[in-house]
Amino acid sequence: MVEITVCGSAVERAAAERATVTVQSRWSAPSPEAAMHAVAEAHDRLVTDAEAHEAEGAAESWHADRVWISHHEEWVGEGQPRRSVYTAAAAVTVRFRDFEALGTWIGRVGLHQTHEVGGIQWSLSDATERQRARAARTRAIADAVERAGDYAAAAGLGAPVIDAIQEPGTMPPGPVAPKGRMAAMAMEAADAGPAVSLEAGELEVRAAVEVRFVADALRHDRGSAGD
């Protein structure tokens, strides 16, 4: 009996269904009160927008769990005393279902000097990710079976039988950087400000599995030689 150990893998693809973006309100001023006041007003506008998007169904969820203030001394000129500068910031993160609504919102908030828009993180819905992961795992097993069969045939062995299955390492399947159709961004005119047209690329869900097989050597009958 011969052991054959192979690694099977598979990739499932699906169009992005969710887009998560973080918008930060940030302002610097000579006093902490002035910096915090400007940021508080800007942050309130973002929270109001996030609540409205969620209520309308354009967003799946949102949270605002980051706020900070810092201080540094700014050089003014030779022989001049340094000037104190206080910087305050707060952030709102929204997970959108509606990419058109997201593009419109980015175009609008980008008009304010206090707002900084971070990168967009594309993802699948939980249900789609589970479905694609299940399909990838099934195909990974089939890939391992095919590989083991090829090795067994090449080595002159019988049909391999699965003896053990194990996931290699700790690499859970999940979306990676968009491939194929890349995320495209283009500016369009709108009354409330420029909207951003967003098209998400396909995301990949990967699965890998290590499978150990056993196979018997083929027996070749030999005829008896006559006297």
What does this protein structure show overall?
This protein has 227 residues and is of the alpha+beta class. It has two domains: 2-15 and 127-215, Translation Initiation Factor IF3; 18-74 and 84-123, Alpha-Beta Plaits (2-Layer Sandwich). The chain has three helices and nine strands; from the N terminus they run E-E-H-E-E-H-E-H-E-E-E-E. The chain has helices at 32-56, 99-109, 126-154, and strands at 2-15, 18-29, 59-74, 83-96, 115-123, 161-166, 184-188, 195-199, 202-215. A four-stranded antiparallel sheet has the order 3-4-2-5. A three-stranded antiparallel sheet has the order 1-9-6, with helices on one face. A two-stranded antiparallel sheet has the order 7-8. Strand 3 and strand 4 form a beta hairpin. The longest helix is centred in the middle third of the chain and has 29 residues, at 126-154. It is elongated and about 95 Å long. Residues 170-195 have low confidence and may be disordered.
